[in-house]
Design brief:
The chain has 222 residues and is mainly α. It has two domains: 153 residues, no CATH class; 57 residues, no CATH class. Helices cover 68% and strands 0% of the residues. It contains nine helices and no strands. It is elongated and about 55 Å long. It starts with 11 loop residues before the first helix and ends with a helix. InterPro entries: Vps53 (IPR039766), Vps53_C (IPR031745), Vps53_C_sf (IPR038260). This is Vps53 C-terminal domain-containing protein. Pfam families: VPS53_C (PF16854).
C-alpha cells in the first residue's frame, strides 16, 4: 500500500468479500426463516466480527501512503455500505435492517474509517498530532497509537516524542485498556444497540432447549 499512487475503483478484495457473502447469507436466511431472531443475531455477529478482522488487517498494512489510505478509505466505505444491507441481500421483500443492527455495524466500521483518516492527516508537531488523534479515536491507548504510527511509516525516534506527548495528555489512562472496544467510540447508543440484539437473540433461545438443533440444521444443509 505504500506504492499506491492514485485512487480508483474499489479494490478486488472488497468484491471477493461481497461475492462470498452474497452467496451464503441468503441461504442462511432461508434456513432460518422461522427463527428470525437467530438470523438477526447471526448477521450482527458476522458483520461486527468481520469489521474487527478488517481493522486487524489494516494494522498489518504498513507503511501506507496517503493515496493508499485514501483507497482503503474508499474500500472501507464500500464494505460498510454492503454490510448495512447484508440482512436483506437478494430478498424479495425490501426491508430496512433493525436500528440495533445499523448502529452496531456503523460503530464497528467507524474504527477503520478513523484510523485511515489519522494515517491521511498532515500534522507536524507531536502535540498537534496527539490532539488530532485523540479527537478521531477518543477511546484509544498507546498500544494502538503505536500501530497507527507504524502504518504512517513514522520512524521510531519520532514515535517516542509522540507517545510521550500522548502519555502527558492522558496520564495513566494512556496505557490502560479501554473500557469499551477501541473504535466503538464513547457512544452509549452503540453499546445499547449490541445489547438489544443480543437480548433479542436470547429471547429466541428461550424458545428451545439449546442451539444444537440450529447447528444440526446448518450442518445438514452445507
Amino acid at each position: 500500500w505504500s506504492a499506491v499512487d492514485g485512487v480508483g475503483d474499489e479494490s478486488p478484495f472488497i468484491g471477493a468479500i461481497r461475492s462470498h457473502l452474497r452467496g451464503t447469507v441468503p441461504r442462511l436466511r432461508d434456513l432460518l426463516s422461522d427463527r428470525r431472531k437467530y438470523f438477526a443475531h447471526l448477521c450482527l455477529k458476522l458483520a461486527t466480527q468481520l469489521a474487527h478482522k478488517f481493522v486487524g488487517a489494516l494494522f498489518r498494512c504498513k507503511p501506507i501512503s496517503t493515496h493508499g489510505a485514501e483507497q482503503l478509505l474508499l474500500d472501507t466505505h464500500s464494505l460498510k455500505s454492503f454490510l448495512l444491507q447484508m440482512p436483506s441481500l437478494d430478498s424479495a421483500i425490501a426491508a430496512k435492517p433493525p436500528t440495533a443492527y445499523v448502529n452496531g455495524v456503523s460503530a464497528a466500521m467507524n474504527k477503520a474509517e478513523m484510523i485511515l483518516k489519522v494515517v491521511m492527516s498532515n500534522v507536524e508537531t507531536p502535540e498537534d498530532f496527539v490532539e488530532h488523534y485523540s479527537t478521531l479515536l477518543p477511546e484509544s491507548n498507546t498500544s494502538e497509537l503505536q500501530k497507527v504510527l507504524d502504518m504512517r511509516g513514522v520512524k521510531k525516534v519520532e514515535q517516542t516524542a509522540i507517545l510521550q506527548a500522548y502519555r502527558l495528555k492522558f496520564g495513566a489512562a494512556a496505557d490502560a485498556t479501554p473500557a469499551v472496544p477501541v473504535g466503538m467510540g464513547n457512544s452509549l447508543s452503540a453499546t445499547q444497540a449490541l445489547n438489544a440484539v443480543v437480548s433479542m437473540a436470547a429471547d429466541g433461545l428461550a424458545e428451545t432447549t439449546s442451539m444444537k438443533r440450529l447447528e444440526k440444521l446448518v450442518k445438514r444443509n452445507f
